[in-house]
Write a structure and sequence with these properties.
Protein name: ArsR family transcriptional regulator
CATH superfamily of the largest domain: Beta Polymerase, domain 2
CATH class of the largest domain: Alpha Beta
InterPro entries: WH_DNA-bd_sf
Strand content: 25-35%
CATH architecture of the largest domain: 2-Layer Sandwich
Strand order of the largest sheet: 6-5-4-7
CATH topology of the largest domain: Beta Polymerase, domain 2
Distance between the termini: 30 Å
């Protein structure tokens, strides 16, 4: 869907990285390794996004770190667009429909770290959650989003990064 509007895979990966969570940061070499792309293509897109005001550039010693510009007038819109692209709204709607007393829903794994992955991992907490329905739900959401979905229930937080997408 968004790939037809943003034809640069590198730019789309950078937008996901920085707008999935405003806490995400990155530097040129790290992003090139993460996306398995050349530093030149990453540098070009970072410069364009920075020049347009979507990203901040901060120099620390001999390393330049990039992050989302949360004061940009389109920050919230871009964040919502990226969340919709990943499928957060679909995930939350389907989970809340028949799952039971859901306390919170968290995004974990690669996507939470800002890596535009084909696998979405979700942590669900709550009491009396319908586990049988949860097993069916992963397959249903996978078909809707065309991405692999892994649902974790009341698991200890052993994840590097979590993003809360729903709280009851």
């Amino acid at each position: 869907m968004l790939e037809s509007l943003i034809t640069s895979k590198t730019r789309l990966n950078l937008l996901v990285k920085f707008f999935i969570s405003e806490a995400n940061k990155g530097h040129l070499r790290g992003l090139a390794e993460e996306f398995n792309e050349s530093t030149n293509s990453i540098r070009k897109e970072l410069n364009q996004l920075t020049d347009a005001g979507y990203l901040f550039r901060e120099a620390n010693q001999n390393k330049v770190t990039y992050s989302a510009n949360t004061t940009h007038p389109l920050f919230k819109t871009l964040k919502q667009l990226i969340h919709k692209y990943i499928g957060f709204d679909t995930i939350v709607e389907n989970i809340l429909a028949k799952l039971g007393d859901v306390g919170s829903i968290y995004l974990v794994g690669d996507i939470a770290q800002g890596i535009n992955s084909n696998t979405i991992e979700v942590l669900i907490t709550g009491e009396g959650v319908n586990e049988a329905y949860l097993l069916q739900l992963g397959t249903k959401i996978e078909k809707l989003l065309d991405r692999k979905v892994i649902l974790h229930l009341n698991k200890e937080s052993s994840f590097d990064k979590i993003i809360e997408i729903y709280k009851n």
